[in-house]
Amino acid sequence: MSGPVTPVTIVTACFNDGAYLRESVESTLAQTHPDLELIVVDDGSTDPTTLRVIDAVEALGVRVIHQENQGLPGARNTGVAAARGTYILPVDADDIVEPQYAALAAAELDARPELGIVYPRADMFGAVTGPWELGQFDVGIMLTGNQIPACSMFRKEDWAAVGGYHQVRLEDHDLWLSILELGRTAYRLDRVLYHYRQRSDSITGGMAEEDTVRALAQIIRAHPQYYLDNIEQLIRIRRDQWDTLQHWKQRYGFIENRLHQAAPLAKRLLRRN
């Protein structure tokens, strides 16, 4: 006879995402996990279509929380704070989840108390398609950039212990490092269970290089002890990156040399023309 099932809450923050919300909600309602709660946080949406879709979703029995716009970290915090689930799974309002995701992730957290984060393999669809490369958890990679997606399951008690999502540019990266600092670790499920929508209006909306540097510096300043405790892992990753760079330089460096050699000839030909 099986024991009690750990309750899971899926939190979906929505700000004017009415074009995609219903499809996302339908995928979360199709989860096979038997004890599931879905909370949609309307983060001050102003688009009439979105408001109509939110009303329709609420009519399906989905719990909806309306609030003034607080941004993504604030909206997620609202949803997690209201959740009855022991485990939390954020799902963006324009993404789609496979039916087994919540059950498989919860089973890992149930079986392994050292785990604080479980994330899936994933792919991209929409304006850009293809695999979303999410490797197995590596502390060194987490120190140089976030390898854990926002759509990862975590324990509500850990979220509370670290003060939830903070209002920073890289709020997911910040939360994951905070949970890892509790002594937890992370694990990737070896199945594609999440579909990340690439929208044409957001493909070029990433941070500029300077902003990325500032955001990562903010992360490092917020977690100095974790970086110090894992400095060997950071050095290993940097060394591996350097070795990879040198490998490709040796393999294809002759192309650069040929281009340099051809440059004077090209200039002479242009002058003649």
Question: Can you offer a commentary on this structure?
Answer:
By secondary structure, the protein is α/β, with parallel strands linked by helices. The chain has two domains: 8-229, Spore Coat Polysaccharide Biosynthesis Protein SpsA, Chain A (Alpha-Beta Complex); 231-273, no CATH class. It has ten helices and nine strands. The chain has helices at residues 18-29, 48-59, 71-82, 101-111, 139-144, 156-161, 171-181, 209-222, 224-229, 231-272, and strands at residues 8-14, 36-43, 63-67, 87-90, 96-97, 115-126, 130-132, 153-155, 185-198. Helix 2 (48-59) links the parallel strand 2 (36-43) and strand 3. The longest helix has 42 residues, at 231-272. GO terms for molecular function: transferase activity. InterPro entries: Glyco_trans_2-like, Glycosyltransf_2, Nucleotide-diphossugar_trans. This is Glycosyltransferase involved in cell wall biosynthesis. Pfam families: Glycos_transf_2.
Question: Characteristics of this structure?
Answer:
273 residues, alpha/beta, Spore Coat Polysaccharide Biosynthesis Protein SpsA, Chain A, 2 domains, 9-stranded mixed sheet, 21% strand, globular
How would the global form be characterised? globular
Question: Could you please say which CATH topology of the largest domain applies here?
Answer: Spore Coat Polysaccharide Biosynthesis Protein SpsA, Chain A
Helix content: 40-55%
Please identify the structural class as seen in this structure: alpha/beta
Order of helices and strands: EHEHEHEEHEEHEHHEHHH
Low-confidence stretches: none
